[in-house]
From TrEMBL:
Residues 102-134 are annotated as: Disordered. Keywords: GTP-binding, Hydrolase, Nucleotide-binding, Ribosome biogenesis. One of its GO terms (cellular component) is cytosol. It comes from Linnemannia schmuckeri. This is Elongation factor-like 1. Pfam families: EFG_C, EFG_III, EFL1, GTP_EFTU. The keyword Cell membrane does not apply.
């Protein structure tokens, strides 16, 4: 099959109605790349016999080796449909060719004839053509451009799924017919729902039901129905969430409106209104998948076939004397064919008869028959009969092949070609850019509005209407790193066959002309052969030197979607960063000149001069302006709108420290890390305070890919990698505290002994966790009480971390310097901040009231969240007066008692908060962040020794010294108060999903138990031999887990690990056996290992902290070495 000329693809970009932007989404190993291969073969990019084996879009070596996709890959495909229409209607059909795609099936043009669908202009006819004779008809061709993005299914690369779905208007969601709906299937469906991407369901690997599970057509039909129910249940969950959220918003607005009336009447009206309140009924039929709607494809990508019930409806409509539209609705479901009346009946019409559903009788039986005679029970005679009955033309040499799979693929490629079925469904079911943006853009521009307002700005109208004549608005979803020698300007141009023939004709004409000149005796120019050879050798040397110069160098290209306008090479555009705020239009905004434009064709790039609205493309010239993603905006328009959305990718949890093996190559490592940070949307690159270069990745596979990129592409040096650094959290519980044998607080106690007393000590009279602290210069004394946060309140702080972060950041940007003021009671300027503050207070008030008397009403006294001002730890003002530095205290008593000379209590507010932030960012166990701790500031006073501070520079110097010592004392007081409780480490946990057979179930359990995991849930998937296991596994024990479990089960089980949460390890790291019972059970050696202490010591050792470790422990025997 010939490949499609580049000019054809570029021409189709301008016809929005015939452009489709789609992505392929699925769980890992459900057949995405194999399906892509079949679609690529339809365009002649690869051989149809290699489809499913070459994995063309997996261009990386490690992708081919592992057999999984790691990076999103894009390619543009050409698809032509030829419609058979009556001669009288050719003109009308031609007029409609430039209009929007009709919503009906392209096969519904007449009762007697059906569509001839052609891929890449080859004339491959649909199997419906075999239904009988038809009247003479002519065809009208429609050409489409399909921009396809193949996305990864592995959970470590879910960030790539977010980038793919943001660029597309439709999606092919694949589900394995055997494994059914898996964890990543939920994730990709949610991502498609969030981005308003219309999905088409592809149930793939149906061949496994026949060859592996050996299902009958009836068993397969029941099994496929269950898969449909599972997928529809997931979609129904999303819909109900939206309905309930919208209903809650309406209810809150009504309640606020009713309360505004006030008085007794308002209260009575409120009760009457909500006494019979019910959720409004909404139509949800459009969100579900059903074969009769044409949005379900049954396929086997490895065998190259797929079908929708529409195709069989077109075949059997005339034979059964039914309208095709009616039969299409009956071909899947409880509908049966009465053998006597030849009529379709429902379930009630069976009257006890054992009839097959139409889906089995007319569809599945035929597919099963082909597999039976070709693969399951090979029979050449029956195969020839089947081929003849289907009116297929299979070459004798193909029929004689001993490879039954090759024969099967040959038959199905003519009878039910996969590419034709899938691309036809894409054209019919998925919207064009112009139609999709009318739905997607209002939600993207106004995500929090139930009913988006009418567009008023020119840029908003241009985006919603996908107007190519408007200003440019585009979204860069990620930066892709490509070798310089792949760019079109650096590639040697490959001549087509026609160009080579033309060149040959010109050369022959020149030779003939030269011969004629020689015969006529004309004097020509003398050519020196040696000079010609020397010139050729010089040119080859120059080309080789240029290629060597480009080798190993990378360029960054923006993977983008244009929503409005037409972008051209050389055009000036504004780049809006992810943090761009229209209120501050000069920040996070820069201008760039478009250096180059590309059509992305998998591993190759095609240079473009311009790209109109509605297309996916690559753009050069953004390096240094776009880090990972951003918005491109027309330079003529003022302001801008940030289009960067928040995906569902997993948070990076695994980190490693990197350094070059040769220290002189540090600059290359830094440059390589910069390129990696831009080219990978899921990785984070940090430089720690110690100077270490650290990368954070989503998992072990992601880490291995990043290291391969650094060593082979970006840095191109040998890199030394530390052991994976897994984060922990520190918390405390209300249990008897052990004697702290560690020297975590030894420094503070040593300072106190040097000065004759403990400056930071436990309060003798206060409650548990109360610490009295005095600064080293004895200027400031304060009392802090440490208390674990109740579970409900802690859960709220963790679940609403993003909401709290947004509020605190907005407040810090707009509020004046007001250290020491309560976070939730400080006056705010904007209405949005006031709403956010009221919402937080309303939600926190009942939680604080439930926590006990000490907590009741304290939500208004929160001074700070920590660490980094947004974490799940609280600093609460329990002084009884305002602690704000820039406010006048209303209490004269507090002003008099808490100010001596030049230093006041309010001057220490910022230092107290800073000490709290430092303490919560690094706890006393192993300097990991705290989680779920509250610190009540009960007392603070300025001691008499600090009355005469002095003025001028001396006063400022003493003030600075006091402030610094308050920070240190507050940090140590918080840590010592933490140790007064029973400390615990919190482990990062993976949620582990495994599908395996019963034979290796015990081995799977053994591997999980050995790595300190625990089983949460286990069930057998009905109708399959597979068990689905859900477990929790500590991240620190997960390295090598996937390889280990595959080795133990001989590849029968493969886990999916997703970061879930932090879980308390219920073991005191300072525990040692000391009671009589413990000593009797364990002995003085404590044979049972203290896992918490082991983890704590490993982290302390890595960070260079003191580790209490005995070189010789429990020595009983001395070993004497005899000298030789």
């Amino acid at each position: 099959m010939p490949s499609i000329p580049e000019a054809e693809l570029i021409r189709l970009q301008a016809n929005q109605a015939h452009v489709r932007n789609i992505c392929i989404l699925a769980h890992v190993d459900h057949g995405k790349t194999t399906l892509s291969d079949s679609l690529l073969a339809s365009n002649g990019i690869i051989s149809s016999k290699l489809a499913g084996k070459v994995r063309f879009l997996d261009s990386r070596a490690d992708e081919q080796e592992r057999g999984i996709t790691m990076e999103s890959s894009a390619i543009s495909l050409y698809f032509k449909i030829r419609r058979r229409v009556a001669a009288a209607s050719i003109a009308a059909a031609a007029a409609k060719a430039s209009a929007a795609v009709p919503s009906g099936n392209v096969m519904d043009q007449s009762n007697d004839t059906t569509a001839t669908t052609t891929t890449a202009g080859t004339g491959t006819e649909d199997s419906a053509a075999n239904s009988g004779t038809s009247t003479p008809a002519e065809t009208v061709a429609e050409e489409y451009l399909i921009n396809l993005i193949d996305s990864p299914g592995h959970v470590d690369f879910s960030g790539e799924v977010s980038t793919a779905s943001r660029l597309c208007d439709g999606a092919l969601v694949l589900v394995d017919a055997v494994e059914g709906v898996c964890t990543q299937t939920h994730t990709v469906l949610r991502q498609a729902w969030k981005e308003s991407v219309r999905p088409v369901l592809v149930i793939n690997k149906i061949d496994r039901l026949i060859t592996e599970l050996q299902f009958t057509p009836l068993e397969a039909y029941i099994h496929l129905n269950k898969i449909l129910e599972q997928v529809n249940a997931v979609m129904g969950t999303f819909f109900s969430e939206n309905v309930l959220e919208e209903d809650y918003r309406k209810k809150a607005e009504k309640k606020k409106e009713q309360e505004g009336k006030g008085g007794k009447e308002g209260s009575t009206g409120l009760e009457d209104m909500f006494s019979d309140w019910h959720v409004e009924t909404q139509d949800d039929s459009h969100i579900y998948f059903h074969p009769s709607q044409g949005n379900v494809i049954f396929a086997s990508a490895i065998d190259g076939w797929a079908f929708r019930v529409d195709q069989f409806a077109a075949i059997y409509a005339q034979k059964l004397g039914m309208k095709e539209a009616v039969l299409r609705k009956c071909l899947w479901g409880d509908f049966y064919l009465d053998p006597k009346t030849k009529r379709v009946i429902g379930y009630k019409g069976l009257k006890g008869r054992a009839l097959k559903p139409l889906a089995i009788h007319l569809v599945l039986d035929n597919v099963w028959k082909v597999y039976d005679v070709v693969v399951v029970n090979p029979d050449k005679e029956m195969t020839e009969k089947v081929v003849k009955s289907l009116n297929l033309k299979v070459l004798p040499r193909d029929m004689r092949s001993k490879d039954t799979r090759a024969v099967l693929t040959t038959i199905f490629s003519q009878w039910l070609p996969l590419s034709t079925c899938v691309l036809l469904a894409v054209v019919e079911q998925l919207p064009s850019p112009a139609a999709a943006q009318k739905i997607r853009m209002p939600k993207m521009l106004h995500p929090f509005e139930t009913t988006p307002p009418e567009p008023t700005e020119d840029w908003e109208k241009g985006m919603i209407n996908c107007d190519p004549t408007s200003g440019v608005v585009a979204y860069v979803s990620k930066m892709v790193s490509v070798p310089l020698d792949v760019l079109p300007k650096n590639k040697r141009k490959t001549l087509s066959a026609e160009e080579m023939r033309q060149r040959g004709r010109v050369q022959r004409e020149q030779l003939v002309a030269a011969a004629k000149s020689a015969e006529l005796g004309e004097v020509g120019v003398h050519l020196d052969v040696d000079e010609v050879v020397a010139n050729r050798l010089q040119k080859e040397a120059e080309d080789k030197a240029a290629a060597e110069e480009l080798e190993g160098k990378e360029a960054l290209i923006g993977f983008s979607r244009i929503y409005s306008g037409t972008v051209r090479v050389g055009q000036r555009l504004k780049v809006l960063g992810p943090k761009y705020d229209p209120a501050n239009p000069t920040q996070h905004c820069s201008e760039v000149t478009v250096d180059s434009l590309f059509m992305i064709m998998g591993r190759d790039l095609i240079g473009l001069d311009q790209v109109p609205a509605g297309n996916v493309f690559g753009i050069g010239g953004l390096e240094g302006h776009v880090l990972k993603y951003g918005t491109l905006w027309s330079a003529e328009w003022e302001g801008g709108q940030n289009l960067v959305g928040k995906g569902l990718e997993t948070a990076p949890i695994v980190r490693v420290a990197l350094e070059p093996e040769d220290p002189s190559q540090m600059a290359q490592l830094v440059r390589g890390l910069q390129l990696l940070n831009q080219a990978d949307p899921s990785v984070q690159v940090l430089t720690q305070e110690t100077g270490e270069h650290v990368i954070l990745t989503s998992g072990e596979v992601h880490l291995q890919r990043c290291m391969a990129d650094l060593r082979e592409r970006f840095a191109r040096i040998e890199i030394s990698m530390s052991e994976p650094i897994v984060p922990f959290r520190e918390t405390a519980v209300d249990a008897p505290a052990q004697i702290v044998t560690s020297s975590a607080m030894a420094v503070n106690e040593a300072q106190g002994r040097d000065q004759g007393e403990k400056l930071i000590a436990k309060s003798e009279t206060g409650a548990r966790g109360t610490i009295v602290a005095t600064t080293a210069n004895r200027h400031v004394r304060f009392v802090v009480r440490t208390v674990p946060i109740p579970e409900d309140l802690k859960k709220y702080l963790l679940d609403h971390a993003e909401q709290i972060q947004t509020y605190v950041e907005d407040k810090s940007r707009n509020a004046k310097n007001n250290s020491g003021a309560a976070v939730l009671t400080e006056e705010v300027e904007t209405g949005e901040q006031a709403k956010a503050q009221k919402k937080l207070l309303d939600e926190l008030t009942p939680l604080f009231a439930q926590a006990g008397e000490d907590w009741k009403g304290r939500e208004k006294d929160i001074l700070a969240f920590g660490p980094r001002r947004v974490g799940p730890n609280l600093l609460i003002n329990q002084l009884g007066f305002d602690f704000s530095r820039n406010r006048n205290n209303s209490s004269a008593d507090s002003e008099e008692s808490n100010s001596n000379g030049g230093i006041t209590v309010q001057d220490m507010a910022e230092s107290i908060q800073t000490g709290f932030q430092i303490a919560t960012n690094g706890g006393p166990l192993c300097s990991e962040p705290m989680l779920g701790m509250a610190f009540f500031l009960q007392e603070i006073e300025i001691l008499d020794s600090s009355q005469e501070v002095g003025g001028g520079s001396e006063g400022r110097s003493k003030m600075a010294v006091s402030s610094g010592q308050v920070i240190t004392s507050m940090r140590d007081a918080c840590r010592l108060g933490f140790l007064e409780w029973s400390p615990r480490l919190m482990l990062a946990m993976y949620s582990c999903d495994i599908q395996t057979t019963a034979e290796v179930l015990g081995k799977v359990y053994a591997v999980i138990a050995r790595r300190k995991g625990k089983i949460l849930h286990e069930e057998m998937k009905e109708g399959t031999p597979f068990f689905s296991i859900q477990a929790l596994l500590p991240v620190v024990e997960s390295f090598g887990f996937s390889d280990d479990i595959r080795k133990r089960t001989s590849g029968a089980a493969s886990p999916q690990l997703i970061f879930s949460h932090f879980e308390v390890l219920d073991m005191d790291p300072f525990w040692v056996p000391n009671t009589v019972e413990e000593l009797e059970d364990l002995g003085e050696k404590a044979d049972r290992e203290n896992i918490a202490k082991k983890y704590m010591d490993v982290v302390r050792k890595r960070k260079g902290l003191f580790v209490e470790q005995k070189i010789v422990e429990h020595a009983e025997k001395q070993r004497t070495l005899r000298k030789n």
